[in-house]
Amino acid sequence: MSLVGVKTRSNNAQADIQEVVQSEISKYLMSSDFKELLRDSFKEALSGMIAQVVKPFEEKIIKLEEEVLQLEEKCNDNEQYSRRYNVRIYGVNNSTSADSYGYDTKEDCFKTVIEFCRNELGIEVKHEEIDRAHRVGKPNRDGARALIVKFKSYESKRKLMINKRKLKGRKLYVNEDLTWMNQQLLKRVRDAIAGKAYVFTADGYILVKVKPDRPPVRIRRDSDLLRYDFE
């Protein structure tokens, strides 16, 4: 075979190989495998780009959420401090009486509080010690609404809080006048560690005492429960 013939056959073979390669490449580019690979690669690249753009905003949002929470806690602390002389008394029936026409007279809540302290707690509270007293909330099964009492001094309030243990086992209660936020937090804390520790309030603070030889810890938010072992 002449040199020209060999060269021609070589060129034809190269052309055939190139055609086969191009055909296979075209088939692969049109195949579902390539489309899936392309889609996954695009998603991965796009996710990376989005993550880079979004991350600074996520960090800023987290920071702002923490700042908002701190402001809410500060406002709640201020509101709770404004209630530092307040107590709520539950289970005391209304001391109303009928007038000469058969209508109920308006209850003297000051008198009701004074008599409750004398008869149920065994302490004397004078009229001058009370700033305000009135009924709040919905009535219980016996028709009695809670009494909210604002004293003129912390010492007057403290007398009730010290002696409220005398009501144990009865359907009478003396509690601190907690803000709505603290009421909800107290309920969640009690539900979360029921039977594991003693939960109580003092001066508007929600406290948990695990062992007698350890001081109680203050719970300001739900995440505080994760910092302590209440098992």
Automatic annotation (TrEMBL):
It comes from the Eukaryota. InterPro entries: Transposase_22 (IPR004244). This is Uncharacterized protein.
